[in-house]
Amino acid sequence: MSWDSRQRAMLAEMGLRLPASAAEVLAEPAPAPEPVAAAPVVAPPSSLAPVPVRPPAAPVPGPAAVTAPQSAVRVALAGLDLDALRAAVLDGRACGACEHRSHLFGRGALPRADWLVVTDAPTEADEAAGQLFVAEPGRLLDRMLLAAGQRLAGDAPSAFVAPLVPGRAPRGRPPQPHELDAGEAQLARLAELLQPRLVLAIGPLAARRLTGLPDPLGRLRGRVHAWRGLPLVVTYAPSYLLRSPADKSGAWDDLRLALASRPA
């Protein structure tokens, strides 16, 4: 459609500008698009609220933090002789916050021992008798040690048996970390006084604690470990062997390994 000058003037007055020709239409730049208003930000419903970012987990304590309680107990026990150490163990001072009703020190060769035999926590029967390894488990332990040329009593005792934890926990619960720390610190001072040439750990708790390995007892047997510079051999507890006599031959193999690994 063509527009005359009068029509163009009228449209211009209305604010509408028309090009004079098709060439002007092609040459004229297209009008800029009208700006679009940004959509308002709507807060999400409470059910769709963003999940808060969790802070990073606290780092796992390193060896220094884990052994700090044990180190503190060792400092407290340093310098104690056998009588003072026995008194500290029996009245629970060395165990700190232990909840055990009674404590057992151990029995055997004093003041020196060729073998230090470390067992798990005392049993209910031990606690009642006030002595480690009573009745049939004690008789079996005596026979095991005699087979290896060691004895806990008699004319020339050469071995000393002590518990890893000196008391039985209430309701038979497993020992707590601070109780294990205190127990090992007591054993360390006992070893300094007895000066044994070998450590024999009997039972899974004593074996895992002294080797520092979480493996089952069966996987810890058959090799010589080390504990505080001493050769360490692990074997079955007498109470277990009474229930599983077929493993007595394996216990004899462990005792032979102990004999072979003991320093001259």
TrEMBL record:
EC top class, as a word: hydrolase
Organism: Pelomonas margarita
E.C. number: 3.2.2.27
Keywords assigned by UniProt, alphabetized: 4Fe-4S, DNA damage, DNA repair, Glycosidase, Hydrolase, Iron, Iron-sulfur, Metal-binding
Ranges for domain Uracil-DNA glycosylase-like: 105-256
Full protein name: Uracil-DNA glycosylase
InterPro entries in the record: UDG_Type-4/5, Uracil-DNA_glycosylase-like, Uracil-DNA_glycosylase-like_sf
Upper taxonomic lineage: Bacteria, Pseudomonadati, Pseudomonadota, Betaproteobacteria, Burkholderiales
Pfam families linked: UDG
Keyword Iron-sulfur among UniProt keywords: yes
Keyword DNA damage included in the entry's annotation: yes
A single MF term (Gene Ontology): uracil DNA N-glycosylase activity
